[in-house]
Write a structure and sequence with these properties.
By secondary structure, the protein is α+β, with helices and mostly antiparallel strands. It has 24 helices and 22 strands.
Amino acid sequence: MTAQPIGDAAEAGHDHEHGGIFGPRSELIFSLLSGAFLIVGFAIEKLVDSAAEWIPLACYLAAYFFGGFYTMREAIENIRRRKFEIDTLMLVAATGAAFIGAFAEGALLLFLFSLGHALENYAMGRAKRAIEALAELAPDTATVLREGKQVEIPVEEMQRGDIVLVRPNERLPADGFIIKGQSSIDQAPVTGESIPVDKQPVADAGSAREPDASIPAESRVFAGTINGSGVLEIEVTRRSNETTLSKVVDMVSAAETEKSPTQRMTDKFERIFVPVVLALAFLLMFAWVVIDEPFRDSFYRSMAVLVAASPCALAIATPSAVLTGIGRAARGGVLIKGGAALEDLGTLRAIAFDKTGTLTRGEPRITEITPVGGTTEQELLSVAVAVEQLSDHPLAKAIVRDGKERLKGAQLPKASDLQSLTGKGVTAKIGADTVLIGKAEMFGVDGIAGITKEAASAIETLREDGRTTMVIRKGNRDLGVIGLLDTPREAAKETLAKLRTMGIDRMVMISGDHTKVAEAVAREVGLDEAFGDLMPEDKVDTIERLSREAKVAMVGDGVNDAPAMAKATVGIAMGAAGSDVALETADVALMGDELRHLPFAVGLSRKSRAIIRQNVFVSLGVVAILVPATIFGLGIGPAVIMHEGSTLVVVFNALRLLAYRDAQ
């Protein structure tokens, strides 16, 4: 029951968890041997009058050896690291008991301490295995197609560009995209999606191989997921140590050592409390000077107080809950980066949502095409598609996809020199003419001529209907306006209603779209507030303003929204499994592109905070009861039983998080 953080425990002091003379259970076996020798020695001492005095003493010394072996090893390691830990306090108390001839009490202390330590390691091992199990999801070998033959190789030897054959019901060995075959894939191990996702080959393998290619979700696959009934051929895009799964495992492991606010508070408390305990124990050794009792009794009381006041349960109270909570979240497709994010998520009272791709599908469609000034619909679309096919923005992709469908193979002009005007639109060249495509607000400022009345009227009409609008200008002539609609996610309304019942009393939308468009979507999904016409820097300002009123989370894609997410109390990225940037920038990453995981994450965080509070209360409560009790005569035996019992209580209480199912 050391005061080290859980993550540090793997580096020092806990090596015995993984082996010993009896294998992984060595500490438990040593503890049970200590208990056996203690019982035999006590029985001989009390029940066998004719036994020599050295026999029970030998049994007690054997109990000391087996009970104190791992405790001594940890204490020595801590001293080498210049740390004075709780293990050392226990050894001092056991040595003190032996010094005054109370071998039975000292042996009982070491037996119970080692037994509690072994059980604690077992319980914490369960929490750690929830995380380690993630690393074991990917198979050890892969079947690779080389020169027309199937070759089985270790996954570590796979290279980008390798073609992997995945048979029915096999786990996928790599991240990549499908080039042949169709199947349903269970992505729950990575994204937390409860229903298998239908997958099909990528439409253009050449484009998918481009360095910054955006592979469609229906063709993108992840290592560690489970294939359904189809045979798939997958082109590898990442080596085994670069997969989404490996990044999640690394980040979750690193998150174990990230201290939460409560952990930092208890650490400060321990730094003050432990020296106070030592000083109190030292003073109590001289109680015989003040009261009429033998030195032996004063010394015994001092050792009992040392045991009672050791804050073992407090040291493990928060790390155990944080470790278990993060592990449970990872199993549910939610990556929480450390104890601070876990606790902060549970304190939220406000959430700001980006619109596109968060509350909406992020798959806008062209709904209206309004040419102006005598322009034909074909000319308008040809110019728009020619320019926008050079861009990878979601609106650009929608214009290209739907525009080509409407043009039915018509010849497109050649566009070049695309430049993005962040948050406004794009500019490019078609022949000698400059083409501008973007919001109405980019016109009439920065030396750009304003739009015509006809175009302005079309925009106003479309925005009243909740459409996102794009103005197309070629040279000095406005060609017209394209209206697009991004439909809300099916789960948006249900998710927001659930969050409201959980006590999130303020939820707002922040969007770069026109305010009327944002308000139309907000009404549809059940939001009261919507802020539109926001540039990236305006989103940051909005989050800062909301933060002054309450703790606020920012939910977005983790890429365009990264600055706003960084300003929020908690930054939450959706669909992070397909985005390294989202994994890196967010405090909380919803691995699947699924809004329904948000109430799960908030609910788990609140449950974690409740368990942390319970653990701290139990830990401090037991110390508050035991210290005066031992001062007034409670022996080492009962003190150590309550002491170790409280430590096990907080650990097993934390393990309840592994069974967490949904927002409560």
